């Protein structure tokens, strides 16, 4: 059940909101249980066979957390984290590592065909964050319903944002519709949902028509011209931004409708003037996760320059691998790791970097790296790079109509969150938003309805 589908927008969401209002109004003690039930129903819609995996994952991790509270045995948390990561590796990386093992002559390999449960990367990382903080003495105990809702809350269970327990758990205790600003927050939620849908359907999906044929041609070994390579690469760079940031806006808007404020995930990343700035603005919750639960434990900046360099590189390589079980994703992460290391030495040397030049270099680097992220293999990526650097025919017919407004929105901004918070309550704003929502519904009905890119991660 996609956020950008009739089933969700016209059936599940209105029913969920009606049930939530009734329970919050007449039986508030059951509000969280209802939200958990709705979240599990939403998850089961995709493939009911994976619902037991999510439920068992929640139950076992909660039981281990309860046992730790009584025994204070840190080994319990270690075992739980290892089991969570092994489960993720089984579904997502088993065949990847089998392929790597197959490169060793004479080593027998076994491959298994398992469907990837949607959201497994995200709910696994939520388990890891809570359990790690529990062992550190930073996280309190929660009952099963609250812990289950933290893991499975339907606006963010499939593709984030990655939410720290401290960012959301206290909000479960509120009576959201009794707040003085309840109407304002509900209106902002509707605006964010509409803005996210517009970014996905009106900006992101049309760019797929520019990018997909180019990368498909490269995957089949066809020559990709310079015009096609730049068209496909630029289109994908903006497509993935509007696709994922649009999903995040929808998630934030949906959560607000149910009285929950989720953290922002994007802050005009294509306006960044350095690679560090880019990672402070792109997928911000993942960046914070990698920093706090990987980079710092690996030594971070506290243990000298060699350790910092190693921690940066290892963190980004693992971050690349998290995005996909393929060497192209590892190379994408490694490239960003090397760029962060170069930027580190540049800063330590005290060399200046004009803002405009910094923006241009950052944008070009990030855009070129998207080829590795999108290409199906290294041969396809090489074909695209040949076109980008003029080692293929120049070609013609560069498509720009969808690229131009996408570039303007992505680079100039503002973010949907900032815009929604700036807009005063107004009848005209409501009318325009309603008209835009209807337009999106017509667009959904007419065109191919693309899944969100990050659902595969």
Topology:
Layout: H1 6-26, H2 31-46, H3 51-71, H4 74-102, H5 120-135, H6 144-152, H7 165-168, H8 182-219, H9 226-257, H10 275-281, H11 284-295, H12 305-323, H13 327-349, H14 355-374, H15 378-388, H16 403-412, H17 416-422, H18 427-446
Helix pairs in contact: 1-2, 2-6, 3-4, 3-5, 3-6, 4-5, 8-9, 8-15, 8-17, 8-18, 9-14, 9-15, 9-16, 11-12, 12-13, 13-14, 14-15
Number of helices: 18
Helix content: 55-70%
Choose one word for the global shape.
globular
Distance between the termini: 17 Å
* Radius of gyration, in angstroms, nearest whole number: 23 Å
Number of structurally distinct domains = 2
β-strand amount:
under 5%
Topology pattern, helix = H, strand = E: HHHHHHHHHHHHHHHHHH
**What's the story with the biggest beta sheet?**
none
The total beta strand count reads 0
Q: List low-pLDDT spans.
A: none
The quaternary state of the protein chains shown equals single chain
Mean pLDDT across every amino acid position: 92
Structural class: mainly alpha
Summarize the structure in words.
The chain has 457 residues and is mainly alpha-helical. It folds into 2 domains: 6-176, no CATH class; 183-456, no CATH class. It is built from 18 helices and no strands. The protein is globular. The chain starts with 5 loop residues before the first helix and ends in an 11-residue tail after the last helix. The model has no long low-confidence stretch (mean pLDDT 92).
């Amino acid at each position: 059940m996609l956020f950008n589908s009739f089933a969700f927008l016209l059936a599940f969401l209105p029913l969920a909101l009606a049930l939530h209002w009734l329970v919050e109004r007449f039986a508030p003690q059951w509000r969280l249980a209802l939200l958990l039930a709705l979240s599990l129903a939403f998850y089961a819609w995709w493939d009911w066979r994976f619902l037991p995996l999510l439920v068992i994952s929640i139950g076992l991790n909660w039981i281990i957390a309860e046992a730790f509270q009584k025994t204070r045995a840190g080994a319990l948390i270690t075992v739980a984290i290892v089991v969570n990561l092994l489960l993720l590796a089984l579904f997502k990386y088993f065949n990847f590592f089998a392929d790597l093992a197959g490169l060793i002559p004479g080593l027998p390999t076994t491959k298994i065909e398992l469907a990837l449960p949607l959201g497994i990367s995200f709910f696994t990382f939520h388990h890891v964050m809570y359990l790690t903080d529990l062992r550190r003495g930073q996280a309190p105990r929660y009952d099963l319903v609250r812990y289950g809702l933290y893991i499975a809350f339907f606006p963010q269970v499939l593709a984030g944002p990655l939410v720290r327990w401290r960012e959301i758990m206290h909000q479960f205790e509120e009576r959201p519709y009794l707040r003085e600003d309840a109407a304002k927050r509900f209106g902002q939620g509707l605006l964010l949902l509409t803005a996210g849908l517009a970014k996905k359907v009106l900006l992101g999906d049309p760019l797929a028509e520019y990018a997909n044929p180019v990368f498909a041609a490269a995957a089949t070994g066809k020559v990709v011209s310079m015009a096609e390579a730049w068209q496909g690469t630029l289109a994908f760079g903006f497509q993935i931004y509007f696709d994922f940031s649009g999903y995040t806006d929808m998630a934030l808007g949906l959560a607000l409708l149910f009285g929950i404020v989720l953290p922002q995930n994007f802050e005009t990343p294509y306006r960044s003037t350095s690679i560090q700035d880019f990672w402070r603005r792109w997928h911000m919750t993942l960046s914070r996760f990698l920093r706090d639960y990987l980079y710092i434990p690996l030594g971070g900046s506290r243990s000298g320059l060699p350790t910092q360099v190693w921690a940066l590189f290892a963190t980004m390589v693992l971050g690349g691998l998290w995005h996909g079980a393929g060497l192209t994703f590892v190379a994408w992460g490694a490239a960003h790791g090397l760029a962060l290391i170069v930027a580190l030495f540049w800063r330590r040397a005290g060399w200046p970097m004009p803002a405009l030049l910094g923006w241009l270099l950052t944008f070009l680097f990030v855009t070129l790296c998207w080829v590795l992220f999108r290409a199906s293999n290294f041969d396809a990526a090489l074909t695209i790079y040949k076109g980008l650097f003029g080692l293929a025919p120049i070609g013609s017919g560069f498509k720009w109509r969808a690229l131009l407004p996408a570039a303007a929105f992505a680079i100039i901004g503002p973010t949907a969150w900032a815009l929604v918070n700036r807009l005063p309550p107004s009848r005209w704003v409501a009318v325009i938003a309603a008209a835009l929502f209807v337009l999106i519904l017509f667009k959904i009905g007419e065109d191919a309805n693309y899944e969100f890119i990050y659902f595969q991660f």
